[in-house]
Design brief:
Helices cover 1% and strands 49% of the residues. By secondary structure, it is mostly beta strands.
């Protein structure tokens, strides 16, 4: 009898030729494996993107320089300008020594210089360089700075409120009106409370005085440490208005200060006699610096307050009478200022941008700029506050990064960027940049997110975040130079991150991890001697839009670049007898060579049945179809992983076989 072929056997089997060779979209977790883009990756644990969308094992870490003498609670860098030589670069830290916070610095990882201090050992510290000083803020201790030139710490010290003045009148006999005169003292930081009022009764109102023959003289004792004094004048207690300023007498022998008012000075109705003493400086949590001074928020006494200082050689001077001052942001509202960054508004004009923290990740964005207002013969400069569009607050002031002409920051369980768009005029646009990794963002611990940190790495932003933990335990990378590709997760903790340029011009990316100062090093295959696990999972491969079409897989090939150590290749899939994805087979690659160039060598000896080529530059491997892989699959997925000291880059994966027409997953 003649045998005839079945319809299935007679059908032509279309070939399967699938090449996976670039993953420029980076890591994504918002879709299932079989619905993922073919140029994305489903897992990049301890991997990074390089070249044109090629994943490779991230750099390991090695210890950098002399290790801390105590617990590190703050890190930054500063530059010392030395005449006739190149600027010197230093790392400055706050370390807990004998139960107190001490300021220590070193150069190029050398020995620490301890300049002392008695700071709160339980508060995270921020350093900001301005005016040849490194200012220190922690929201607990009074403001201070490290004087770079003098190599010493300087604390802001308050001065005393002036004693009650004495007042005498000339040419003003009579009892028509009684005036109140109060005096305050200024130093380079702020202003004291106004003194007790002195009363003077005169025969005519001030605006009718003859400046040549009618005047009052105010006399009061000098205050140690004062630079000048403010005179306040009025008729109602607590409503005295600013009248004028008199400098501190330069003569040491002069014990008193004198001020004469003959009505030529105009009263300032916007400046009332102060009731508090600000000469010790504000206690600020977050401080930033720019060319026009410093800006600080997180005043524990006034949570809505934004402080600003004078500029240039007066930076650090918060006195309203020397270029500084303060303004409340959203006073009494439902969002609190946590970060102030020198940035711009939607028109491109310079403005200080204030990010606030509301509830459940919400918050507002505000712009502060200075405006001149003419009042009579005077021009008053005051801070103007404008609310920006959208709700875009942050939990994490140290994780707000300015890069690529935008601000990037975590806001609750999303990350956002604030910048401009050509089609939207005069406003800043806030966009969500974590749509593709939202399942991972949902794991962030909001109660610990205030300690998150961020760093611009020239085309990438690195954030260390508390992921299901009460401290920073994972580093996530956002690659804005590659259209917003994400890379995560790097399983290493970091309390602080910074870039340091040493004396040779080399740049070091450093972190404080478990109180060790480490730097990322491309030649290191572990983290300070401890191997880290890697996993690289490719998107699922299917053979039609339904993801149910069966195919006979002949071969899975891959090409690794510069492989070192033991690398596992795992093939997952759904076969005829499987309902869910299962591990079909696994192979281990163990190149016994080091990455020293790009020349090829002969086949290395590998203890498994299938050929593998290993060289100083690359390793090729393939798995033919057999009983382990399964001849017929509806889905296939490839994964690479390491558990010991290893490194590689994945160049490509190529899958060949034939589609079986009419055969679908679940058919009998």
């Amino acid at each position: 009898m003649k045998t005839t072929k079945t319809n299935r056997q007679r059908r032509t089997k279309p070939p399967v030729n699938i090449a996976l060779k670039e993953w420029s979209s980076g890591y994504m977790s918002f879709v299932d494996a079989i619905r993922a883009r073919k140029n994305c990756l489903l897992d990049m644990t301890n991997m990074e993107l390089t070249q044109d969308g090629i994943p490779q094992v991230r750099p390991g870490t090695t210890r950098y320089g002399t290790q801390p003498l105590g617990e590190v609670i703050g890190v930054s860098t500063f530059i010392k300008v030395v005449p006739s030589t190149a600027p010197e670069h230093y790392v400055i830290t706050m370390q807990v020594i004998n139960g107190k916070g001490h300021v220590l610095y070193n150069r190029d990882g050398g020995q620490w210089t301890d300049v002392g201090g008695t700071y709160n050992p339980h508060r995270q510290v921020q350093f900001v360089q301005e005016n040849n000083r490194v200012y220190i803020s922690n929201g607990s201790d009074k403001m201070s700075y490290f004087d770079i030139k003098e190599n010493k710490l300087v604390d802001y010290t308050s001065i005393q409120t002036p004693a009650k003045p004495t007042v005498s009148a000339k040419g003003l006999d009579g009892a028509t009106v009684t005036y109140r005169i109060r005096v305050s003292a200024n130093n380079t930081v702020g202003e004291t409370a106004a003194s007790e009022a002195a009363l003077v009764t005169v025969g005519s109102y001030r605006n009718s005085w003859d400046p040549n023959t009618q005047y009052i003289t105010v006399t009061f004792p000098k205050v140690a440490g004062a630079t000048s004094y403010n005179i306040y004048f009025g008729t109602v207690a607590g409503e005295e208005q600013y009248l004028g300023n008199v400098p501190q007498p330069s003569e040491a022998a002069t014990a008193t200060v004198k001020f004469v008012d003959n009505n030529r000075a105009a009263l300032n109705p916007y400046k009332k006699a102060p009731e508090g003493n600000s000469t010790e400086g504000p206690v600020i949590t977050f401080l930033s610096a720019t060319n026009d001074g410093m800006y600080g928020v997180g005043d524990m006494k006034d949570r809505y307050r934004l402080w600003y200082s004078a500029a240039g050689d007066k930076a650090g001077n918060f006195s309203p009478f020397d270029g500084g001052g303060w303004v409340d942001i959203n006073y009494g509202g439902d969002s609190i200022p946590v970060c102030a960054k020198p940035f711009r508004d939607g028109q491109g004009k310079y403005a200080v941008t204030i990010l606030t923290h509301g509830s459940a990740g919400t918050g507002d964005l505000y712009h502060m700029s200075f405006v001149d207002q003419a009042v009579g013969d005077y021009t008053i400069t005051y801070p103007s506050i404008l609310r920006a569009n959208g709700q875009s607050g942050t939990y994490s002031p140290l994780a707000v990064v300015e890069a690529n002409n935008s601000l990037y920051y975590p806001t609750g369980r999303t990350f956002k960027t604030t910048g401009s768009k050509a089609q939207l005029i005069n406003i800043l646009v806030t966009n969500n940049i974590t749509d593709t990794i939202q399942p991972d963002c949902d794991k962030l611990n909001l109660s610990a997110l205030s300690r998150a940190i961020g760093l611009d790495l020239d085309g990438r932003i690195a954030w260390c975040l508390p992921v299901g933990a009460d401290k920073n335990n994972e580093i996530w990378i956002y690659d804005y130079s590659r259209n917003g590709a994400w890379t995560l997760r790097w399983t290493i903790s970091a309390d602080f991150m910074w870039k340091y340029e040493d004396s040779s011009g080399a740049t070091h990316w450093c972190i404080v991890s478990e109180n060790r100062i480490l730097e990322f090093n491309k030649s290191a295959l572990d983290d300070d001697g401890t191997p880290f696990r890697t996993r690289l999972s490719l998107p699922g491969v299917t053979f039609d839009d339904s993801a149910l079409q069966m195919a006979s897989i002949d071969m899975v090939r891959w090409l690794l670049l510069r492989p070192l150590g033991e690398i596992s290749v795992n093939i997952y899939g759904i076969g005829e007898d499987n309902e869910e994805t299962v591990l079909l087979t696994t192979r281990k690659i163990t190149p016994a060579i080091s990455a020293t160039g790009w020349d090829d060598t002969e086949w290395s000896t590998i203890e498994w049945d299938y050929p593998l080529k290993a060289s100083t530059s690359r390793a090729k491997g393939q798995l033919p179809s057999n009983e382990e892989v399964g001849e017929i699959l509806s889905q296939l997925q490839v994964e690479f992983s390491t558990d010991s000291r290893a490194s590689y880059a994945l160049n490509s994966v190529f899958i060949t076989g034939k589609v079986i027409p009419g055969l679908y997953q679940g058919d009998d």
